[in-house]
Write a structure and sequence with these properties.
By secondary structure, the chain is mostly helical. The chain has helices at 2-38, 40-56, 79-83, 111-114, 117-135; strands at residues 65-67, 71-73.
């Protein structure tokens, strides 16, 4: 009986150590991905290439991102232009679904880091260039 209890205890300790090690590795890896996603040059390059891809697939909508002090904005495009000549390309959120919580500043929350202001600025600049060249 004592041997069974000892073995169960050591098995539990080994499993707990394994889970802690696994979580540590995943958080470390996610922090590396967040650092890469936050890099301004990488973000801008992603924005340029994704705008070109979306334009070719006829997804012509500017990107808006959440900036802490400003709220949801469309970087690089004046609000007057979005309400005027570029109205058809303005981002439209017809439906926003939520789970009742707002996840912010979590290590594993890649979405808020992947589409940052550098990405949106580059995306919108490239899309504006493509749209204006099409209209000319």
């Amino acid at each position: 009986m004592v041997t069974t209890v000892k073995n169960t205890f050591f098995l539990g300790v080994a499993l707990l150590a394994g889970v802690i090690a696994w979580v540590w590795v995943e958080i470390t890896r996610s922090n590396e991905l967040i650092a890469i996603a936050n890099d301004p040059v990488t973000s801008a390059n992603r924005g340029f290439s994704e705008a070109l891809t979306d334009y070719r697939q006829d997804h012509k909508k500017f990107v808006e991102v959440f900036i802490p002090d400003e709220g949801y904005t469309v970087p690089g495009i004046p609000k007057s232009a979005l309400e005027g000549e570029l109205k058809e390309f303005a981002p439209r959120n017809f439906l926003i679904c939520g789970a009742g919580i707002h996840i912010e500043n979590f290590a594993l929350d890649m979405g808020s880091h992947e589409y940052n202001k550098y990405y949106a600025q580059a995306y919108n600049a490239k899309l504006l260039e493509l749209v204006t060249s099409e209209q000319s």
